Amino acid sequence: MSVDRDVEELIAEGAAEPVEGWDFSWFAGRATEERPPWGYARLVGARMAAVDAALDVDTGGGEVLAEVPSPPPLLVATEAWPPNVAVARRTLRRVGATVVQVAGRPPLPFRDASFDLVVSRHPVETWWDEIARVLRPGGSYLSQQIGPGTMRELSEAILGPLPPAANRHPEQAVAAAEAAGLRVVDLRTAALRAVFHDIGAVVYFLRKVIWTVPGFTVERYHAELRRLHDRIRAEGAFVAHAHRFLIEARHP
Length: 252
Known about the structure:
This protein has helices at residues 3-16, 40-48, 82-91, 128-134, 152-159, 170-179, 199-208, 222-235, and strands at residues 31-33, 53-56, 74-79, 98-101, 115-121, 135-146, 183-196, 238-250. It is an alpha/beta fold. Strands 1-7-8-6-5-2-3-4 form an eight-stranded mixed sheet, sandwiched between helices. α1 (3-16) runs parallel beside α7. InterPro entries: 23S_rRNA_MeTrnsfrase_RlmA, Methyltransf_11, SAM-dependent_MTases_sf. Keywords: Methyltransferase, Transferase. It comes from Micromonospora narathiwatensis.
């Protein structure tokens, strides 16, 4: 098989795979990413077992929430992207969660002081005032978030040099939480090694994690993909780093 045909077949594989939900099992053998040391799913499970009412914001396909060992009596999840809503409703039947389709902007469609716990993994945007509004006094918000400059090496491999990241800094999240009247009780950060073994995995990742290269399409960035394919072939893999932070804030 020629190199030209090989790269086109790999790109086509990454372009054909459905992107609904947040199941990353397709990457097995093709890409890896370190997991944060704090164990977000385990922390969520422990918090859920101790409350009566909980909300998962931006649930994706519900993959993390579905693994909660002891769900509370009232469990609600929100999702804005219609294809993910259908996936989440199927996935979350096992834990008895209600999935509510929402707009990608505030307000949340819930009464004040509705939940003891609000969680969110990789939210698109955190609406701190809304989180504070729907939390009951003494309730908590627990979230694993995307940090600044995450996967910058991959973004720059496609887009070229970029300015320093201006958003998603943990300190900004702390300030916003406190401005909404919440008290931050935990903050942790991690830089995680991500390794791509073929260009098909890169294509699938860029289609799935859309903020890495905004407006990405195979057609638009075909030349850059071919160059990155050549680099992977020469070096054996492409390495980038994902940045994450965990924040927990409590309602007074």
